[in-house]
């Protein structure tokens, strides 16, 4: 079994990808500092797979510790790098922490990988790199605009770092940059899912916590945008579908099929849904009425963004399979296990 190092492997997308890797015949190895993840994710992974996944409790920015992992595991074939902070609002309050952690951990990884002959990298990027796009849907060729938050800027910087490192004459690194849209949902077993700390920032955990009675009501952040119903439009992708994109990307790198040293793919459904449509889909999925009201706009929000998913379909053969209602049903099932 080919070993794939998964940094941030105990996190939301990481844990679902670890499960998908093992089920696809790879040997995932987790690196996580548990700064924004829980030990319970490891128990969930083990319960789904029936085996323990080797796990190192270290910070990916700690070069000596990271070297230790590559030494101990010896034959790592590729890395999927999730480990990063991910909250847009928090990044505005703590920009330095975001640059140090998100950019720092990538730099450390890129310094260590060549010393162990590891040439394959899948990097967690984000549709935030597009900023506020001029036209929709966004393709990989859509020019990036200034990011609306330090978080988005770290993703832009990380992409540029990967390009510069790859352009060096002696470089052997091959990278697939996956630009995620909005991941939602949980594993069908409801043994792993999103574990927001404190009050959720993201829409779907806020909705499920409201339906569960943990929050009083959802506030929709503005209904006066230039969108069909006035609320923001996003591309919501089921996390298990998203996890599968990583498997195809890793396989492409290991098969040496990548056409360039850095390839970029949007990973979304190709459909935009408004906040109100998500609320209605949740009500259908859960059979519950949701308490919500309209509030002011949230600073930093892009009015509308969704993916042109053609390139991932054509080049990677990747297509999402789960509908919005089914994705939300899995979120609701997961929420009910947390009560
Ligand atoms: N949103 C909302 N109320 C909330 C949380 C989010 O109306 O309590 C909206 C948010 O303004 C955005 C959409 O839901 O339009 C998705 O937000 P999220 O934070 O989940 O993801 P983002 O697109 O910002 O990465």
From TrEMBL:
It catalyses: UDP-alpha-D-glucose = UDP-alpha-D-galactose. Belongs to the NAD(P)-dependent epimerase/dehydratase family. This is UDP-glucose 4-epimerase. SUPFAM superfamilies: NAD(P)-binding Rossmann-fold domains (SSF51735). Its EC number is 5.1.3.2. The lineage of its organism: Bacteria, Pseudomonadati, Bacteroidota, Cytophagia, Cytophagales. It comes from the Bacteria. Pathway: Carbohydrate metabolism; galactose metabolism. The keyword Isomerase applies. InterPro entries: Epimerase_deHydtase, NAD(P)-bd_dom_sf, UDP_G4E. It is an enzyme of class 5 (isomerase). GO terms for molecular function: UDP-glucose 4-epimerase activity. Residues 4-268 form the NAD-dependent epimerase/dehydratase domain. Homodimer. Its cofactor is NAD(+). The keyword NAD applies. Pfam families: Epimerase (PF01370). Keywords: Carbohydrate metabolism, Galactose metabolism, Isomerase, NAD.
């Amino acid at each position: 079994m080919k070993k794939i190092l998964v940094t941030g492997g105990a996190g939301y997308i990481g844990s679902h990808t670890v499960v998908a890797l093992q089920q696809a015949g790879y040997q995932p190895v987790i690196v996580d500092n548990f700064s924004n993840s829980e030990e319970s994710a490891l128990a969930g992974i083990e319960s789904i797979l029936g085996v323990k996944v080797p796990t190192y409790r270290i910070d990916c920015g700690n070069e000596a510790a990271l070297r230790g992992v590559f030494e101990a595991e010896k034959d790592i074939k590729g890395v999927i790098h999730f480990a990063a902070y991910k909250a847009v609002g928090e990044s505005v309050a703590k920009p330095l922490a975001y640059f140090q952690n998100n950019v720092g951990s990538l730099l450390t990884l890129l310094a260590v990988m060549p010393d162990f002959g590891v040439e394959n990298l899948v990097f967690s990027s984000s549709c935030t790199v597009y900023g506020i796009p001029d036209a929709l849907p966004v393709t990989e060729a859509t020019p990036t605009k200034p990011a609306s938050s330090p978080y988005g800027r770290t993703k832009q910087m990380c992409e540029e770092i990967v390009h510069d490192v790859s352009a060096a004459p002696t470089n052997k690194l091959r990278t697939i940059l996956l630009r995620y849209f909005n991941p939602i949902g949980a594993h069908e077993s409801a043994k792993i899912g999103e574990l927001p700390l404190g009050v959720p920032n993201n829409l779907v955990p806020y909705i499920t916590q409201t339906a569960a009675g943990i929050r009083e009501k959802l506030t929709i952040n503005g209904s006066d945008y230039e969108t069909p119903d006035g609320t923001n439009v996003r591309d919501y992708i089921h996390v298990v579908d998203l996890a599968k994109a990583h498997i195809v990307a890793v396989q492409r790198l290991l098969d040496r099929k990548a056409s360039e040293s850095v390839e970029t793919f949007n990973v979304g459904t190709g459909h935009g849904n408004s906040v109100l449509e998500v609320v209605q889909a949740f009500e259908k999925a859960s059979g519950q009425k949701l308490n919500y009201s309209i509030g002011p706009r949230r600073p930093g929000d892009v009015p509308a963004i969704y993916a042109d998913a053609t390139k991932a379909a054509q080049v990677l053969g990747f297509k999402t399979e789960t509908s919005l209602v089914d994705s939300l049903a899995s979120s609701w099932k997961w929420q009910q296990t947390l009560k």
